[in-house]
Predict the 3D structure of the following.
Amino acid sequence: MRLQRDGHEVAVLLTGTRLLDDTGSPGGLVLFLEEVTHLLRVQRMEAWREVARRIAHEIKNPLTPIQLSAQRLRRRYAGQLRDGGAVFDECTRTIVQQVEELKALVNEFSTFARMPAGQHTPHDLNALVEEALVLFREGHRELDFVFTPEPDLPELELDREGVKRAVINVLDNAVAACAGRRTVAPGERGRVELRTTYVSRLGIVRLEIADNGDGMTAEVKARLFEPYFSTKREGTGLGLAIVSAIVADHNGFIRARDNLPRGSRFIMEFPVRQQAAQLAARARLGAYGA
C-alpha cells in the first residue's frame, strides 16, 4: 500500500499474523508495517539498468558505420553535384548531426548501466565543487552562483569523477530551473546556492544545492530519481538517476526539498571515515581536546 508522510508518498508492506489461544481459538491479530520505498526504488533501478544496457548495446553498434558512410558521401559527391547539391549537403549533414546526438544518448545509457564504476580515494569535497562551478560561472553569467564551504571539512572516500558528475548534473537542473521561471520580479536574478556542512554527531558531510526557480510538485518529487522520468522536453530522464546511483555507491543519501520561499533544494549526504572524523575533531579542539 502507499501512504502519505510529511507530504511524500511512501510504499508500505503490510503483513499480519493471527494469534491463537491455548484452545486454538482466535485471540487477536498482529499487523506489521514495513516501509519498502527504498527497496522498491532499488529494484526499479536495477531493472532500468538492464534496459539501458540492452539499448546501449543494440543502438551503439550501427551508429559508427552510419556516420562514416554519410561523411564519406559528403566528401566524395558534395562537390560534384550541381542540381540538388544543397539538398544533398543538408541531408548528409543532418544524418551526421543526428548520429552525434544518438551517440550522446547512448553514452548516457552506458554510463547509467555500468554504474558504479569508479575507485574511492580520499578527496576534498570543497575542491570538487569548486572545479564543477568554474564552467557554470563562465557559461551562465546571467546567474549568481554562491558557494559557502565548510572550512574544516574532513576528507571523504570519493569516486572523484563520479561525484563531480553528480554535482554537475544537479547544477544543470538548477540552471534549467532558474531559466524556466514563469514569474520573475523586476531586477531579480537567477540564483544557485551551494553549501557544505560537516555534521560531526552524525558522522556525515552534507552538500546542499538550491535554486530560486519555480520548485516542484509533490508528484514530481516522488518520481524525481526514477530513470527516464523527466520534466524537460528534451531530457533523457537519466541525469538525476545517475546522481542517485553515484550517491548510493558512496553509502550516502540524496533527497529533494522545497527551497523556501521559492525553488528546490537538493541535499546529498556522504559518510565520513572514522579516522578522518577524528583528525578533523582534533584540528578544531586541539591535540588534547582543550
The CA atoms of residues 26 and 142 lie 70 Å apart. Strands lie at 2-5, 8-20, 26-35, 120-123, 143-148, 156-159, 190-199, 204-211, 253-258, 264-271. The chain has a mean pLDDT of 83. The chain has seven helices and ten strands.
